Amino acid sequence: MAEALDFRVPAESSKMLLLCGLEPAAAEHSLYSAFSEFGLLYSVRVHKNAAIAQPGCYAIVKFYSARDASRAQQACNKQRLFQKSPLKVCICTKQKVLQQQVLPLSSHKCQELANYYLGFNGWSSRIITLQNISGFDEEYEELGGLSQKQCLKYLCALEVMLPNHGICTRGIGLAEAHLENSQDSLEFVTKTRRVQKLSVGKALSNAFQKLLLIVLEDGKVAVEYNSGQEESIDSLTEEELKGLTQVNDLSLEHLNHEEDEEFACELSLDEAHLL
Asked: Hey, what's the torsion of the CAs at 94, 95, 100, 102, to 10 degrees?
């Protein structure tokens, strides 16, 4: 049976393993090494047992694929692996009352997932435009009066190409940061570089959100364009994307969200793109 994987943080319980009976000295890198043999991992987290429980640890191992998680559970349950005592490995079945918001993967995780299933040469990306759309925001100070604080704001439009599958998709990202002292050249350069990288990372993540990886039982991978994620940016020409007036016609409010846990991670971007 084929399995569909999207470029979002895995939230299904079928993709999570609960490991009990870990010895106190258990390390995340040992778990990662053991379970990554069954498929690509999103995360490995080790926690100490509650004070009322026996000394030791438990862990949550999160896969991108439910099929990989199932294979790992069957192969590793009641096995010693890297420690003296056997582990209890089970699929997480406890459901939370409130459904968590499904977050998009960071650009780093998107690249990791694409490289694993499509190969390093199976996709490429290019920046169509990286624009400075900075302005000034008026803010009231505690002592009263009106002041102006410069806001750095960059908009990026980016294209992801999958030549082996005949698919091309675009993404858009917006990032901003406030300057505490507009006369401080070091702060200006540092924050400008960070905002540029963050906007490029968000654009790359946004482009991957429109793709679905279809993984077949024999390991072959097909890719589908998720039309439900289609946006007006895909119908614009490059000239329109490079024009500030046309870009401002896009709805950018939903792109200017606060940095979540995913986007706060280090962005692995080619520095040459930002020169």
From this structure: 80
Contact 210, 226 (CB under 8 A): yes
The secondary structure element, H or E, covering residue 242 is helix 238-242
3 within a domain of the structure (yes/no)? no
Q: Which two tokens stand for residue 184?
A: 């401080």
CATH code of residue 171: 3.30.160
Matching residue, tokens 């998709």: 169
Using CA atoms, how far apart are residues 124 and 160, in angstroms rounded to an integer?
Answer: 6
Measured in degrees and rounded to the nearest 5, phi and psi for residue 74 equal: -65, -35
Q: Which domain holds residue 232?
A: 107-274
Task: Please say if the pLDDT value at position 135 is more than 60.
Answer: yes
Contact call for residues 159 and 128 (beta carbons, < 8 A): yes
Sequence-distant (6+) residues with CB within 8 A of 40 are 63, 64, 65, 68, 112, 113, 116, 117
List 3's β-bridge partners, or say none: 215
pLDDT digits (tens, 9 = 90+) for 150-184: 889 999 999 999 999 999 999 999 999 998 887 88
Q: Look up tokens 């759309």; give the residue.
A: 133
pTM score above 0.85:
no
